[in-house]
Amino acid sequence: MNADGGGHPGGPGRPPGARDPLAEAVPPAPPTGPATAGRPCAVVVGGGIAGLAAACALAERDVDVTVLEREPSLGGRLRGWATTLSDGSPATMTRGFHAFFRQYYNLRALLRRGDPGLGALVPLTDYPLVHRDGPRDRFSGLPATPPWNAAVLAATSPSFPPRDLARVNVPAALQLLDVDVPGVYERLDHLSARDLLDAVRFPPTARHLAFEVFTRSFFADPGLLSAAELAVMFHVYFLGSSEGLVFDVPGSPFPQALWDPLERYLAKRGVRLRTGARVEEVRRGRERRFTLRVRTPEGEAFGADADAVVLAADPGGVRALVAASPELGAPRWRDRMARVRTAPPFLVSRYWLDRPVRPHRPAFLGTAGHPTLDNVSVLERYEDEAREWARRTGGSVVELHAYALEEGCDPGYERDRLWDQAGTVYPELRGARAVDSRHELRADCPLFAPGGHRDRCGVTTPDPFVAVAGDHVRTDLPVALMERAATSGLLAANALLSRWGRPGHTVWTVPRRGRSAPLRALARWSRQPR
User: Fold this and answer.
1) CA torsion, points 5, 33, 66, 284, in degrees to nearest 10?
2) Residue 464's domain spans which residues?
3) What's the domain count of the chain?
4) What is the percentage of the chain residues whose pLDDT exceeds 90?
5) How far is CA 287 from the centre of its chain?
């Protein structure tokens, strides 16, 4: 977003807070419709990152905006809710750790609306990755600029022994340096991430630590993830950006750090935020173009009229809403929306323990080689609420993630198995007693399966006054995870603003192609038949 929401200015040609001189600005397209005489009205379905980004972008161009969110609070998969522990302590539960990378330009611009200096975020300068068999990698001390960051990592990491590096398939590995969006999907989307890693022949430990740890952050086994998504991911976080691999995390629970300030900002802009409001159908309206049928948890039903709609629900939610709205869109588009896929279940387990973990444990540890354990977080290392509880009780607040479980898995079994694996990583956990615990088993993240990119829905739809936003949406920009959600929300708003003859917002992105022209040329030469 451009800077009309406040915040520190960026450098010349850079978004606020960015250091990469090659960060790209994507200006909005010129308006395609005449300027509207009155104030248009838009309803945003979904109060997660994508929906809130769309709401901000629309409200800042004098659009009357209502956000309808089915959950009791804002934030989507980053929402939080109050709970009371068995010792009487108030606490905030969320769906787990999230990393706010410096190259999340549009997400960070969104958060600056409510927190201009991003004071609610605190940096984690390092996050170790540890394999069950012993190898360990770190990202501190690496150069920030590609390709030197990759070269130094390969030269200094124990995961890249020289004898194994000699087996690497260099032409296949070069494809990770020749990322251009959307062209990389034409070349690699038919392969799985596992297929690509098999072809590259990285050393086994490097494959686990430097690749599969990251692929599972897409909530899918590498065999179920598009190789193009893997290549784009490495471009965004490592090979295409000089922002580095360090990231920030909220220093307070998500509601206090992120959504309460943004909610205040939106309220000042006149945005109506209604939580606990499930949209059941979108139909053609009488007074305005659309009428939305909405129901509350208490069974109250009401209608919401709008000149335009942004569908910013999660994959399952938007799929169900389109299916329940036969007047929405054209048949081919509806068929594509029906095929939006959801990733396998993931589990977040948080424990309030009666004793501390060892002092040298990092705030965040990525793990590899375990059946299901993907990372361990020690919340008191960075979050004020957990830190206060640990100070008062002498304990620790530990969170475990399992990113890609089997469909139909048994929740109790998976919780026990995850705890047992954590005890092999941090042995002191075996002697700890849980004062309390909370567990979230969900399956509502998008799946980017091989061959799916061409069929993926984009921001625009057959109806120029219906747009789609979310981390499942195709943007044709090198973005991922939370940044894809924020970017798609901004692009959805731009599409509607253009129809109303109003200026849109600039989108920022890491470079849309590999940084080095000689390396790109070498990669393309290596693909030529001999």
Assistant:
1) -170
2) 3-77+257-338+457-509
3) 1
4) 74
5) 37
